[in-house]
């Protein structure tokens, strides 16, 4: 992103005009991409380093129109509740992949036991969900909440049938 001498922000592959009236020069869309930093500087174009945008999950973010943004923390308890709800949805979704083993066990016409690896994996998923929920609820600020690493055990131990 680049700032023209008149303060207008342009991006690569965008035509632009510098000057006014008879002195105006129109530059083609590919000019910024092909010009050297020195050539851009000679006509008063400054490269703008775009600010990293804050995560909308944790902050109310407003773009300022100049490559920067303003971030205001979301209410901590609201973000925690949302994250805990997502943990529960994800755990339920992972567990659903092996629920048929449990359903088959309940069927009076079936004598098939649930493989121990499946039972172990299901317990691991439930334990990880409980652990993540505890980590989230222990956070006292948005930055510490944003640092929580949400990972799940792999499902490679499931016995295919």
Describe the structure.
- It is elongated, with a radius of gyration of 27 Å.
- The strands form three sheets. It has a three-stranded antiparallel sheet.
- The C terminus is likely disordered.
- The protein contains six helices and seven strands.
- Helix 3 runs antiparallel to helix 5.
- It is an alpha+beta fold.
- The chain starts with a strand and ends in a 15-residue tail after the last helix.
Short descriptors:
161 residues; alpha+beta; three-stranded antiparallel β-sheet; two-stranded antiparallel sheet; 42% helix; elongated
Low-confidence stretches: 157-161
Order of helices and strands: EEEEHHEEEHHHH
Q: Please give the count of helices.
A: 6
Helix/strand/pairing class, anyone?
alpha+beta
Query: What is the terminal-to-terminal distance?
Result: 54 Å
Tally of strands: 7
Strand content: 5-15%
Major sheet: 3 strands, antiparallel
Fraction of residues in helices?
A: 40-55%
């Amino acid at each position: 992103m680049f700032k023209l001498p008149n303060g207008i922000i342009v991006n690569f592959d965008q035509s632009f005009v510098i000057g006014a009236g008879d002195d105006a020069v129109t530059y083609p869309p590919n000019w910024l991409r092909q010009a050297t930093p020195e050539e851009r500087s000679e006509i008063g174009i400054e490269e703008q380093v775009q600010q990293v945008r804050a995560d909308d999950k944790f902050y109310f973010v407003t773009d300022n129109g100049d490559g920067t943004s303003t971030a205001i923390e979301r209410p901590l308890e609201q973000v925690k509740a949302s994250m805990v709800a997502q943990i529960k949805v994800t755990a339920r979704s992972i567990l659903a992949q092996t629920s048929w083993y449990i359903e088959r066990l309940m069927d009076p016409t079936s004598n098939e036991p649930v493989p121990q690896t499946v039972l172990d994996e299901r317990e691991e998923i439930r334990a990880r969900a409980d652990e993540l929920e505890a980590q989230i609820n222990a956070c006292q600020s948005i930055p510490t909440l944003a640092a929580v690493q949400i990972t799940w055990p792999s499902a490679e131990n499931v016995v295919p049938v």
